[in-house]
Specification:
The complex is a heterodimer of chains A (about 775) and B (about 250).
Chain A lengths: L2 H12 L1 H38 L5 E9 L2 H6 L4 E7 L1 E7 L7 E8 L11 E5 L9 E5 H7 L6 E6 L2 E12 L19 E7 H7 L5 E9 L5 H12 L8 E2 L4 H42 L1 H9 L4 H42 L10 H28 L2 H5 L14 H5 L2 H12 L1 H38 L5 E10 L2 H6 L4 E16 L2 E10 L8 E3 L3 E3 L6 E4 H7 L6 E6 L6 E10 L7 E4 H8 L4 E9 L4 H10 L3 E6 H55 L4 H37 L13 H27 L5 H4 L3
Parallel strand pairs in A: 4-9, 6-8, 14-20, 17-19
Antiparallel strand pairs in A: 1-10, 1-11, 2-10, 3-4, 3-7, 5-8, 6-9, 7-8, 12-21, 12-22, 13-14, 13-18, 13-21, 15-16, 17-20, 18-19
Chain B lengths: L20 E12 L6 E12 L3 E6 L5 H8 L7 E6 L2 E2 L5 H11 E4 L11 H9 L8 H7 L15 H13 L5 E5 L7 H18 L2 E6 L10 E6 L2 E7 L12
Parallel strand pairs in B: 3-8, 3-9, 6-7, 7-8
Antiparallel strand pairs in B: 1-2, 1-4, 4-5, 9-10
Helix pairs in contact in B: 3-4, 3-5, 4-5, 5-6
The chains are: A alpha+beta (about 775), B alpha/beta (about 250).
Chain lengths: ~775, ~250
């Protein structure tokens, strides 16, 4: 082995503490990126493969009742590849031992053979047998929520009749990857389930023999879904179609895609910040590390090594350090990525996981890290080799310090304190870099931790400030507003607030969006139009109140008007003025007064949604009654929704955030340890001299660590500022159609971030302090380093 | 100049209560490493440093003189043998007692000055006087070495000789009982070196500080009261020098 290479190995061993600290900083950046990107890649790949393999449809439409013969006409539409007609109904389910009414979707499957589209992945048992009308296959999430499996039974109120259904199988469907009930935001395995029944059995139960009320299509390659949708709408209009829609608007898929978008943000924005911070720290640390090597560089150069050879030598040193970091980051990132994918896949109900990470994430992480490391080294090495060897071998001439105008303060300082201040002021850039390093570590802690504040705030506003009902009941059909009084008489009901949900398509120029309009009574208080700014907004007698996000999508503002195509009833199309815009954190809601909605529909006062305030002591009695009411299609509990929200969305966030916090701590320790350690190498001789002169270990530790402490102290407020700025940026980038997570940073978040950074510094200082205690006092008497 | 009363001959087992002895070394050995690679830096050294004397340690590099100085200064411990500073057994002293000893009693002058670059001449001296029990004013110490008009200069603004004189001022400002100088002129040209020796000499004469000075430069020996010649870890020869030459008469 060449001598220079041997030196390399020895140097690596001598610097092992720092090598590890720097490698861990690099590893943090790399691991976060690899973890996030591979998990994202895996989920996207899994979703795609699942959709492909189980033939997830591309266009969906519901109708009131269409004759089966229409299927061939649909199949003949240009661009259509396959057609699957079926019957889909909502029903209230009654499960033994579970007090609350459960919402069920009953969907038909062919009694012989598999459906053409939206095939089921059978997990347990078998499919329904022909001629056995009471057999059902249930969704896996629902099966797990209630411990139901083949051989068990449950009851459903079907078309006003209570029926016993026998579970024969458990399955997954690409249509219900995100198994979500009407009006819910999160999957609730106990309060929502999908049941697949034989087509004939379901047709018989709902008087739909020879007819269908739902159709799914797949398209030929290259066919434009908009054209197919337009033609399909024309075809279905007279059968009560409420508007065909693309796969991207299909509820489960929309949620999955939204969450993948969100994941993409979590997986790209934060890791990018992490990797940049790690790269910056690597650069800073290595720059100083090489600067210390100055006399050795001069020596080696004096022996006749060329600048290139010396540069290469240090590049190898840095590549070894960065390489170690990258390898640690890769392995850790892969492991965490796999773990994360499995955890998330559970959430999404995929029958299989497609975890085959491509090289991109690994390559990006490695290149950025290595590049930053080499760049940091290059500057320092270049400065060192530029010196004539004789000069480089000398220690740098004592830097010229200046008396600084510290005024009256200066007179009170003792010499050690004066040394600290002069040191900082003499090297303002280096000092600033150290402070900035600490600040960035705090900033990443803040952007990791503030999610929790923001989510808590979002939940508070959306579920508690903006909603006050306990239970929301959806009706099968709109009914006369008399129904409000009927519900008010149910046991435990303290107050009732009616509402009307209209399926509509908004159009404004080229822009369009399928949404529903909430018709609200003028004095709505249980579920009013609520502005996230903190108040309920009065609904004007005419016109729409749009959520800000929806107004953005349609590019309209207050005073503009939008085209509303109602997709039910007489299907009116109206120009409606936008009377107001409110900020909402979740969804893209639109509101209208109940009277105006009824007028637009040319209906008598009618309602299809009832918000109830319930006496908790009589809740059970209420549920028992609701289960028996044929006009009820769904029952939603606010409390359960909030709980589910925390269980699912929050769980995903917590997992990510926990990882981010751990990595942020690593960054903090890496910066603090290296800063103190390098300061020690730079000033070892000075400190040893002071020891010889009779200063105690404590006194010289004060000089060394006092400087680090002051720089960290400066970094704290700076970090809070950077953190708040980055959090603002991230929040802004994080917006999806579904969520606008508000920027909220609680004081405690700043507090915890500072505390973690200070703790990291104290630990690092303690480690360095041990080295201070072992300073070689004799060496300084003779040699110059 | 001696203050204490009894004048017994050195006894290796007894502390240096002897009148006029500031530091006493008995049977010092120092071995670095072990086995085949063991280096014997000291192979049994007995030496007393008397109050107020100027002792010069001469010898080739590696002869053990620096090791002896380090042990006398409380920076290192012998492998065997004992060292007393007055009543204090340095070989048995704790780490913090050694720090205390250096802080209160010893002044060091290094070959390479070792000034704090971030402090002015005055502040470099104040660094030591702030922690010493009975120091002189920093400006006074600097005046003793002829730097009264360079008080507010930083090390980078001083010549090598001036820096070394700041180092001497720093060493004597605490009014040490022992001044230990390791090659104080090693990095200086002869004219500057002589100015530095003059400063050491004047401290020794005027303050009566026991001074040990290491050099490999034989002519310097003529300013000493006693010259101890080292070779291969032993004291080879001790020469009394009744007629000290003033430093300004030196030439090399």
């Amino acid at each position: 082995m060449r001598a220079l290479n041997r030196k390399l190995l020895r140097d690596l061993w001598r610097l092992r503490g720092q090598v590890l600290a720097i490698a861990l900083v690099i590893a943090s950046g790399v691991a976060v990126l690899v973890m996030s990107l591979t998990a994202l890649e895996a989920l996207q790949g899994t979703a795609e493969a699942y959709y492909e393999r189980y033939r997830f449809a591309q266009v969906f439409a519901s109708v009131k009742r269409a004759p089966e013969r229409l299927a061939s006409r649909i199949a003949a539409l240009p661009g259509v590849q396959a057609v699957e007609t079926r019957i889909v109904e909502l029903a209230i389910l009654d499960i033994e031992g579970f007090a609350e009414p459960v919402i069920g979707i009953l969907a038909s499957i062919p009694e012989r053979g598999e459906p053409q589209l939206n095939r089921l992945a059978l997990r347990q048992g078998r499919f329904v047998a022909p001629g056995r009308p009471d057999e059902v296959v249930i969704s896996e999430s629902f099966s797990e929520g209630h411990g139901l499996g083949p051989g068990d039974h449950l009851h459903a109120i079907m078309n006003g009749h209570k029926r016993r259904l026998d579970v024969v199988g458990v399955a997954l469907s690409p249509e219900y990857v995100y198994s979500i009930g009407p009006g819910a935001l999160m999957p609730d395995d106990q309060r929502f389930g999908v049941l697949w029944m034989g087509e004939e059995a379901l047709a018989a139960a709902y008087d739909l023999d020879g007819a269908f009320n739902d159709v799914a299509l797949s398209l030929l390659r290259g066919a434009a879904s908009e054209d197919v949708i337009d033609r399909l709408d024309l075809l279905l209009a007279r059968y009560g179609g409420i508007g065909a829609f693309d796969r991207k608007d299909q509820v489960s898929n929309w949620f999955v895609m939204n969450e993948l978008d969100q994941l993409k943000n979590l997986a790209t924005i934060l890791p990018t910040i992490f990797l940049s911070v790690a790269a910056f720290l690597t650069n800073m640390v290595l720059n100083r590390l090489i600067a210390i090597e100055r006399s050795e560089i001069g020596l080696v150069k004096a022996f006749g090594y060329s600048s290139l050879e010396i540069g290469w030598h240090y590049m190898k040193l840095v590549m070894a350090i960065a390489g170690l970091g990258i390898v640690i980051g890769w392995s850790l990132g892969s492991w965490l990525g796999n773990f994360l994918t499995e955890t998330l896949a559970e959430q999404y109900r995929f029958p299989f996981i497609y975890y085959r990470p491509g090289p991109a994430a690994y390559a990006i992480a490695a290149l950025v890290s290595l590049g930053a490391a080499l760049l940091g080294t290059w500057g320092a090495v270049r400065r060192a080799v530029a010196l004539p060897p004789a000069e480089a071998m000398q220690p740098p001439a004592p830097p010229l310090y200046r008396r600084t105008r510290m005024g009256a303060l200066a007179a009170r300082l003792d010499q050690p304190t004066r040394m600290i201040f002069r040191q900082i002021l003499r090297w303002p850039l280096r000092s600033a870099m150290t402070s900035l390093g600490v600040a960035l570590a705090i900033a990443v802690l803040i952007i990791s931790l503030h999610w929790l504040d923001s989510i808590t705030h979002m939940v508070q506003v959306y579920f508690f400030d903006a909603q006050h009902q306990d239970v929301t009941v959806a009706l099968v059909e709109p009914q006369s507003s008399v129904v409000t009084r009927e519900f008010a008489r149910l046991p435990g009901v303290l107050a009732v607030e009616p509402g009307r949900q209209l399926s509509v398509r908004f159009r404004s120029g080229q822009r369009e969006k399928r949404e529903s309009i909430s018709g609200l009574p003028r004095d709505a208080w249980m579920q009013p139009a609520y502005d996230a700014g903190g108040e309920a907004v009065a609904i004007p007698p005419e016109g729409l109140v749009l959520s800000k996000k929806l107004a953005e999508i349609l590019a309209v503002g207050r005073g503009d008007s939008v085209t509303v195509e109602v997709l039910e009833g007489r299907r009116p199309v109206r120009e409606v003025p936008v009377a107001g815009v409110v900020e909402t954190y979740i969804g893209t809601a639109a509101y209208m007064s109940l009277e105006a909605a009824n007028r637009m529909m040319r209906e008598r006062p009618s309602v299809d949604l009832l918000h109830l305030l319930v006496d908790p002591r009589q809740q059970a009695a209420l549920f028992a009654e609701l289960k028996e009411l044929p006009e009820v299609s769904a029952v939603m509990l606010r409390r359960a929704t909030v709980d589910k929200f925390y269980e699912t969305m929050a769980r995903i966030m917590y997992i990510f955030i926990t990882f981010y916090i751990v990595f942020a701590c690593t960054l903090a320790v890496g910066v603090a340890y290296n800063s103190a350690r390098i300061a020690l190498s730079e000033r070892g001789r000075e400190l040893a001299t002071l020891r010889v002169l009779g200063m105690s270990r404590l006194e010289i530790s004060y000089i060394l660590l006092g400087e680090v402490a002051i720089l960290v102290f400066i970094g704290l407020p700076l970090g809070c500022l950077c953190g708040a700025g980055l959090a603002w940026l991230v929040t802004d980038l994080f917006e999806t159609d579904l969520y606008r997570v508000p920027l909220v940073i609680e004081p405690s978040t700043f507090g915890y971030s500072i505390l973690i950074a200070v703790a990291a510094t104290v630990v690092s200082a303690a480690l360095v302090r041990r080295r201070v205690d072992r300073l070689d006092l004799i060496a300084v008497l003779k040699t110059r380093e | 100049m001696s203050t204490a009363a009894d004048a017994q001959s050195p006894d290796p087992a007894e502390p240096a209560r002897t009148r006029g002895v500031t530091l006493r070394a008995c049977g010092l050995t120092k071995v670095y490493g072990s086995g085949e690679v063991a280096v014997h830096a000291l192979r049994g050294v007995d030496l007393d440093l008397y109050e107020s004397e100027l002792l010069v340690l001469l010898g080739a590099s590696g002869s053990g003189k620096s090791t002896l100085l380090n042990i006398l200064g409380g920076l290192d411990r012998p492998s065997d043998g004992r060292v007393w500073f007055r009543d204090l057994d340095l070989t048995a002293a704790s780490e913090s007692a050694l720090t205390r000893y250096r802080r209160d009693h010893v002044g060091f002058v290094f070959q390479f000055y070792n000034l704090m670059p971030s402090l002015t001449a005055l502040e470099n001296v104040a660094l030591v006087t702030e922690i010493a029990p009975k120091p002189m004013a920093p400006a006074e110490a600097l005046a003793l070495v002829g730097l009264e008009d360079r008080l507010n200069h930083f090390p980078a603004q001083l010549s090598g000789g001036e820096q070394q004189r700041v180092a001497i001022a720093r060493a004597i400002a605490k009014r040490p009982d022992v001044l230990l100088c390791d090659e104080p002129t090693g990095a200086l040209d002869s004219t500057t070196g002589i100015r530095v020796l003059e400063a050491i000499e004047s401290v020794n004469r005027n303050l009566g500080t026991t001074t040990a000075l290491i050099t490999h430069n034989a002519p310097i020996a003529s300013i000493a009261d006693r010259v101890v010649r080292f070779g291969d870890g032993h004291i080879v020869e001790v020469t009394e020098n009744p007629d000290r030459r003033p430093a300004h008469e030196l030439e090399w």
